[in-house]
Design brief:
Helix content is 10%, strand content 45%. The two termini are 24 Å apart. The protein is mainly β.
Length: 62
């Protein structure tokens, strides 16, 4: 679910490193919003990241 339907941005994984250099796994989640957008001429509820919303890749339905 946590994936942008326009650019494909999803969850990325990495390692959290503490001050004492103990390492543990962590995730970075994208800022995903469920919005009503125009897809193929019809309004539809889709998941889009805020970067795509801001840049104009997504046309919002009124």
């Amino acid at each position: 679910m946590a994936k942008c339907e326009f650019c494909g941005k999803g969850v990325s994984f990495g390692i959290k490193v503490s001050h004492s250099h103990r390492r543990s796994n962590r995730t970075w989640k994208p800022n995903i919003r469920r919005v009503k957008a125009v897809v193929d001429g019809t309004p539809k509820r889709v998941y889009a990241c805020t970067r795509c919303l801001r840049s104009g890749k997504v046309t919002r339905a009124v």
